[in-house]
Amino acid sequence: MVVAYGQIFPPALLSLPRLGCVNVHASLLPRWRGAAPVQAAIAAGDPETGVTTMLMEEGLDSGPLLLRRATPIGETETAGELAARLATLGAELLVESLRGLVQGRLEPVPQPAEGVTRAPKLPRGGQRLDWSQPATLLARRILAASPAPGVEAELVGRPLRLLRARPLPALAPPSAMPGTVIGMEGEALAVAAGEGTVLGLLELQRPGRRVLTARELVNGERLGAGACLR
Question: Taking all residues of the chain, what is their mean pLDDT, rounded to a whole number?
């Protein structure tokens, strides 16, 4: 059995186990084959994802399906949090799959040709946002990259890591350029985004410091409207 190994086994190795090599993959295959399925599901705005067990073959995450189990993705759930939940779900599904194979109750099913999507490996290093994009897309990118590789920005001349966010229902003032701080909206730091939308930043972190809520950052740095995230 293999989990998050990231390498393709040669046929000679795959043929050794009598019942085949079992892999646990953190998506509902055939959607999001590849190295970063958790991040890809969040970035795409999928309402749900899950785990799949399959028999391995030479192709990447293309083997016959054993079992799948779905779970909803939370509105502000980060990739790190979702991956932890899927690990627990995957462990349970792996035990069920192995038991079914050994007892002869589980018949592998070929993956359908329709619905295949790819989730390539993420680049190293913090990502940067294009603030002219709509708030929904920006929030997804932040959540998908949290905690690693992370989304980085600069605020009042100092680096800032953006860890949790959500789109806000408010409209940005016409005079606010994308990336401009509007103020606090509830517990979110409202920032103008593209197409007149507003992004709510919920958790942030300065280098070498602890994670802060938006209100803690604003109160601690006396941050006001008009500051610009770059």
Answer: 94
Do 119 and 33 touch, CB atoms closer than 8 A?
A: yes
- Cis previous bond, 149, omega within 30: yes
Domains of the chain (ranges; CATH) run 2-119 (3.40.50.170), 135-221 (3.10.25.10)
Q: Please, what is the Cα angle at 160 between 195 and 122, to 5 degrees?
A: 75
Query: Rounded to an integer, what is the distance from CA 125 to the centroid of its chain?
Result: 16
The half-sphere exposure of 57 on its side-chain side, counting CA atoms within 13 A, is 10
- Integer Cα distance of 123 and 229 in angstroms: 22
pLDDT digits (tens, 9 = 90+) for 46-70: 999 999 999 998 888 999 999 999 9
CA gap 67, 81 in Å, rounded: 23
DSSP state of 158: E
Is there a contact between 170 and 196 (Cβ–Cβ < 8 Å)? no
In the three-class reduction of DSSP (H, G, I as helix; E, B as strand; rest coil), residue 67 is classed as strand
Q: Which residues contact 136 (CB under 8 A, 6 or more apart)?
A: 45, 167, 197
State the residue for tokens 């601690």.
Answer: 220
Contact of 194 with 131, CB cutoff 8 Å:
yes
SS3 219: helix
